[in-house]
From TrEMBL:
EC top class named in words: ligase
Sequence positions that bind substrate: 272, 329-331
Full protein name: Succinate--CoA ligase [ADP-forming] subunit beta
Protein role: Succinyl-CoA synthetase functions in the citric acid cycle (TCA), coupling the hydrolysis of succinyl-CoA to the synthesis of either ATP or GTP and thus represents the only step of substrate-level phosphorylation in the TCA. The beta subunit provides nucleotide specificity of the enzyme and binds the substrate succinate, while the binding sites for coenzyme A and phosphate are found in the alpha subunit.
Lineage, uppermost ranks: Bacteria, Pseudomonadati, Planctomycetota, Planctomycetia, Pirellulales
Catalytic activity: GTP + succinate + CoA = succinyl-CoA + GDP + phosphate; succinate + ATP + CoA = succinyl-CoA + ADP + phosphate
GO cellular component: cytosol; succinate-CoA ligase complex
Binding-site positions, ATP: 46, 53-55, 107, 110, 115
PANTHER family reported in the protein's UniProt record: SUCCINATE--COA LIGASE [GDP-FORMING] SUBUNIT BETA, MITOCHONDRIAL, SUCCINYL-COA SYNTHETASE BETA CHAIN
């Protein structure tokens, strides 16, 4: 689960991480009022979307307007906000369709001496969280990691203990931080590691992390992602969820207990088991097709959930054909067959439907389908199914 920058900074403040004073605005007038309340000579208006690269991102409606604007008056703040709100910001992370901006933050100016990068993720190889820093702040860190990985410095830490002062001193030496900045970094980094663990984060990034003229450290940005499986113990975080930023079909699937990710292809997939779903998408690609989604109905899905899965797949206007690939273990083939018949009655299949069933109660499942009036193409195995669905949509 992702949250907005302003929400991330609210959490930062609770853990003692320094951020700049800011206000959320949903209109030009609110942005102008926020500028006046901040009381400085400058302020920055930032679009709030669940994507990075806003500073270089431009709007579909106005490609000369960027997602981050420096303003020197209330009138400029109002104009910047009005140019952003309601429009679609395109960045390196949004795709060409962009994301609609529904709110902005107006943030106080800052005495910037240096810009650094800081991030925390799970290091799967070492099975520990890792704190990463770089002197290349304010730029695309993915490019730095790819072209000059030696410029990213890393320290793993035990989540039960946190990062040590010795580790932070090592990072400070590599970042060329001295004097009061070392003490500031000790407090700053320890607080971030504590937040990452206690709130079940899956990713935390600050880009840029600012070193001020007097040597203090301030988070100029806040990107936080959370483990969705842990939200039951993070009610404060869950309350920050912005459904308008999420794909509607993925929200529907989550509510139905389905694992679904929308893709850009035209062959809808309904499969039981994540590994089998990945294999199904791979073999569709192998035979020249493009999967429109990842969808794992799981092993215990009931008829209602599977019917909803069909509704979600068929609601995608790009879908020109559907492949059902079920290997019955816990999930019975007869359940899928009944759901398929139900979906055909309630939703209707206006695109080719290829079905491959194997495993528990497969004969019963095939009988249900044969005795129904659902127009479908039967497949004997996965290769046969992929070939048939690709041929059907062509």
């Amino acid at each position: 689960m992702k949250i907005h920058e302003y929400q991330g900074k609210e959490l930062f403040k609770k853990f003692g991480v320094k951020v700049l004073d800011n206000r959320v605005a949903k209109s030009g007038d609110e942005a102008a009022k926020a500028y006046d309340e901040l009381g400085g000579a400058i302020a920055v208006v930032k679009a709030q979307i669940h994507a990075g690269g806003r500073g270089k991102g431009t709007f579909i409606e106005n490609d000369k307007q960027y997602g981050v604007q420096l303003c020197k008056s209330a009138e400029e703040a109002k104009a910047a906000a009005e140019a952003m709100l309601g429009n679609h910001l395109v960045t390196i992370q949004t795709g060409p369709e962009g994301k609609q901006v529904n709110q902005v933050i107006v943030e106080a100016g800052c005495d910037i001496a240096r810009e650094l990068y800081l991030g925390i993720v799970l290091d799967r190889e070492n099975k520990l969280p890792v704190l990463m820093c770089s002197q290349e702040g304010g730029v695309e860190i993915e490019k730095v990691a790819h072209e000059t990985p030696e410029k990213i410095f890393k320290e793993n830490f035990d989540p039960a203990v946190g990062i040590s002062s010795e580790q932070i001193k090592t990072l400070c030496d590599k970042l060329e931080l001295t004097g009061p900045s070392v003490a500031a970094a000790d407090t700053f980094m320890k607080a971030l590691c504590k937040l990452y663990v206690e709130l079940d984060c899956s990713l935390m990034e600050i880009n840029p992390l600012v070193v001020t003229g007097d040597g203090d450290l301030v988070a100029l940005d806040a990107k936080l992602n959370f483990d969705s499986n842990a939200l039951f113990r993070q009610p404060e975080v869950e309350a920050m969820r912005d459904l308008s930023e999420e794909e509607e079909s993925e929200v529907r699937a989550s509510d139905a207990g389905l694992s679904y990710v929308k893709l850009e292809g035209n062959i809808g997939c309904l499969v039981n088991g994540a590994g089998l779903a990945m294999s199904t998408m791979d073999i569709i690609k192998l035979h020249g097709g493009q999967p429109a989604n990842f969808l794992d109905v799981g092993g215990g899905a009931k008829t209602e959930a599977v019917t909803e899965a069909f509704r979600i797949i068929l609601s995608d206007k790009n879908v020109k054909g559907v492949l059902v690939n079920i290997f019955g273990g816990i999930m019975k083939c007869s359940t899928i067959a009944e759901a398929l018949v139900s979906a055909a009655k309630t939703v209707g299949f206006e695109v080719p439907l290829v079905v491959r069933l194997e495993g528990t109660e497969v004969e019963e499942g095939r009988r249900i389908l044969e005795e129904s009036d659902v127009d479908l193409i039967s497949a004997t195995d996965l290769t046969d199914a992929a070939e048939k669905v690709v041929a059907a949509i062509q």
